[in-house]
Amino acid sequence: MESTDIGQRTALYEQHIDAGARMVEFAGYALPIYYDSIVAEHRLVRSAAGLFDVSHMGEFLVSGAGAVETLERLLTNRVADLVPGGVRLSFMCYEHGGVVDDLLVYRMDDDYMLVVNGSNRHKDLAWVREHLGDRTEVVDVSDETALIAVQGPRAEGVVAGTTGADLSGMGYYRFGRMEVAGRDVLVSRTGYTGEDGFEIYCGPAEAPAIWSALLESGRPVGARPVGLGARDTLRLEMGYCLYGNDIDETRTPVEAGLMWITKLDKGDFVGRDAIRAVKEEGPAERLTGLVAAGRGVPRQHQAILSDGKRVGEVTSGTYSPSLERGIGLGYLASGVSGKIEIDMRGRTVEAETTGLPFYRDGSVRRRK
Amino acid sequence: MSQTDLRFAKTHEWVRVEGNEAVVGLSDYAQGELGDIVFVELPDVGLTVSKGDSVTTVESVKSVSEVYAPVTGTVSAVNDALDAEPGKINSDAQGEGWIMKVEFSSPAELDDLMSSSEYEEFTKG
């Protein structure tokens, strides 16, 4: 793909420019941060449906007789009992228990597809290669794969208008091959917004026609393109982590509260012993939800205080259009909860800890 | 009101002179750069400011921006409507989205500000 001043183009670059997107560089790609308004686009996804170009994500195909064994060693979640057509969320961790990346693993018949954060693509590929077992191959197909997400309570209808396949029977975290706008694609019922939705994997050359077909199909419900700005407010309202902010190589799944995808009772995997040790001792800090009481938006790196004493740091923060106040995630000393303060550029703003998700009316709950 | 009556600071504030008061806001260009404004901290009426002082902040979904005093003087009024409707800065930055009025003491400072066309050139560069 050609480059722009702010990164590589995705297959849908022209579509974003034509739609008036404000572009930004993300994971080495030029992507829309918003088209008209982050808040309006966020509300559109919560109420109807929006389309996201997430082609910056990385995709690897893992195959061979040794694939399951390799993946069981690399991933914190179970792989052997993942059935064809199933998807799972997992981590890959370092020996010391810190997170390499969070990713999705898809089981085809005997092959697997790993979908990784765009910003970690090269690091993750090297990591997988370093730990490749016998009779296993990994191929990076990221450049041959475009990815479109349709998210919102009306997403099923929008996608259904472009395919003859029956989507009503597709459960959450399941996928299948089908034709969309006459093109052979892989569609999974997955997403990062807390709403029902689908992610459509296609060849880059097909992406523009599929994008147009989805917009056309979505016209009656007002479906429009949505940028990365709303992608961030939507995921943060659900308390979903973003690698590089809320999780990184210095954090284990224990502190991040993500042990449900970390199976200490399966066979050995990279990082297992270190993670178990942290779990048994209890982590010094825990990832916690934060809600600002007054005006002010928590921002990454701001100090969290309790009775004037520093007890943690904000890792992600934004304005929540659903709650109409600032929200964030941060690591707090274990045991600290309730009323706290956040140091916002020298001004102390009252906040309090809260359970996750912040937003509890997402349509994804009705699919699970 | 003609937009060409406005003078602009390099820090993207605009000024419209009304007698001995300068009405101050953020430019339309600035609101476009900031995106959806969600909170505005309004300064206290009576606050004395020097040209170039950071007077208050405007918070958008993605970032925070300082608002600098384009002239020296005393804050004589603030736009309370921005408490409930900070989005006025997005929808009408150079009209209903005004932030404060400053009773200014040095008219010569106005000459340091750019004209509409100079500011347009400035934002292009």
Structure, briefly:
The complex is a heterodimer of chains A (368) and B (125). In chain A, the strands form five sheets. In chain A, strands 12-13-14-11-5-15 form a six-stranded mixed β-sheet.
Secondary-structure map:
The complex is a heterodimer of chains A (368) and B (125).
Chain A: E1 3-4, E2 7-8, H1 13-18, E3 22-26, E4 29-34, H2 38-47, E5 50-53, E6 58-63, H3 67-74, E7 87-93, E8 99-107, E9 112-116, H4 121-130, E10 137-140, E11 146-151, H5 155-160, E12 175-180, E13 183-188, E14 197-202, H6 207-218, E15 224-225, H7 228-237, H8 272-281, E16 285-292, E17 303-306, E18 309-320, E19 325-333, E20 339-344, E21 347-354
Parallel strand pairs in A: 5-15
Antiparallel strand pairs in A: 1-2, 3-4, 5-11, 6-9, 6-10, 7-8, 8-9, 11-14, 12-13, 13-14, 16-19, 16-21, 17-18, 17-20, 18-19, 20-21
Helix pairs in contact in A: 2-7
Chain B: E1 7-8, E2 13-18, E3 21-26, H1 28-34, E4 37-40, E5 48-49, E6 54-60, E7 64-68, E8 73-78, H2 81-84, H3 88-91, E9 100-104, H4 116-124
Antiparallel strand pairs in B: 1-2, 2-3, 3-9, 4-6, 5-8, 6-7, 8-9
How many individual helices of chain B? Answer: 4
Shape of chain A: globular
Order of helices and strands of chain A: EEHEEHEEHEEEHEEHEEEHEHHEEEEEE
Largest sheet of chain A: 6 strands, mixed
- The helix/strand series of chain B, from N terminus to C terminus, equals EEEHEEEEEHHEH
